[in-house]
Design goal:
Radius of gyration: 20 Å
Domain Enoyl reductase (ER): 10-319
Keywords: NADP
Distance between the termini: 10 Å
Number of helices: 8
Organism: Streptomyces lannensis
Protein name: Zinc-binding dehydrogenase
InterPro entries: ADH-like_N, ER, GroES-like_sf, NAD(P)-bd_dom_sf, Zinc-ADH_QOR/CCCR
Bound molecules: NADP nicotinamide-adenine-dinucleotide phosphate
CATH superfamily of the largest domain: NAD(P)-binding Rossmann-like Domain
Number of domains: 2
Helix content: 25-40%
Amino acid sequence: MKAVVIRTFGDPDGLEVVDLPVPAPAPGQVLITPEAIGVGGVDAVIRRGTLATHGFKEGHLLGSEVAGNITAVGAGVDETWIGRRVWAFTGLSGGYAEQAVAAVEDVLALPDGLTGAEAVALGSSGVVAHFALERARFTPGETVLVRGAAGSIGITAVQLAARAGAGAVVVTTSSEQRGARLRDLGATHVLDRSGDGGGPDAPSGFDVVIDVVGGPQLPLVLDRLNSNGRFVAVGVVGGHPPADFGMRLMEAFRKSLSFATFSLDTVPVPDRQAVRSAQFAQAARGDLRTVVHQVLPLDQAATAHREMDAGRVFGRIVLVP
Ligand SMILES: NC(=O)c1ccc[n+]([C@@H]2O[C@H](COP(=O)([O-])OP(=O)(O)OC[C@H]3O[C@@H](n4cnc5c(N)ncnc54)[C@H](OP(=O)(O)O)[C@@H]3O)[C@@H](O)[C@H]2O)c1
């Protein structure tokens, strides 16, 4: 089968289309023929080598989520799964391929009315948005900043915060046009990537920050937390924050701030699946919006990554085998 691996960490030219043997589903796994493959921000972070210290190595087969049909099951898996249309989390590897395996507990049947592309635009990221807001103990009326809002996690976080009754939903993004799209999804104030702008009525402080970006400017955002504010770091698309950012937190000691990292890995699989299933149903009804930026053939994965690195993607790029 055709698959896309990281030949060398760094820019997208290091991605390579290769031929690999079709994986056999191990006990507890299913084999899927994808109709849609999600290109996540995490894939770019892995490709750049940002997570090399977390055990990712060159030769890595990228991709963590697919939607498609189950064609075979491993030992111990109910055979009635065969032929069903599903979304699946493949782990942090294995998605950019013509065939993919996933543990059966990480598979969810797709509701009618949800396309494969929509499913991979929402499947992994929507639950991150949900649980990050929950971990932040967000309550109605509070001011929320979604930093890096134009990706799939941010797009869902904006919608969830708005419909849960946030006092203000502030976002950072890189252009007016992207800001207008985020307003359409529920943002009330649009800041630039540095956190400037937003108009005269923009809130000066935030009760909750959901941060997809990290990077060198993270301490500036910490400074703008209100007393008792909660900052939840969910991503590092802008790289790691400076090593001494904890000092900024300590300097604001008397504001009783909380800084948390949040990883979906810490949420029990059944809890993730329950939220994901509800979000899929909402998306199928049109109550939760998914944004598919572009659909490209699998062998153009490097183009997809170039688009992400150039900052041209709003939502998710989807690959099709
Ligand atoms: N916590 C978890 O469990 C979990 C699960 C999955 C993924 N993740 C993490 O979440 C991140 C990916 O999320 P995603 O797919 O929603 O993000 P994404 O689409 O890659 O990026 C979101 C937005 O961030 C902005 N951005 C990109 N580079 C930036 C930079 N250098 N500085 C400032 N802003 C920048 C861009 O918007 P603008 O151009 O409009 O500013 C971009 O659209 C990764 O770090 C991944 O590791 C976490």
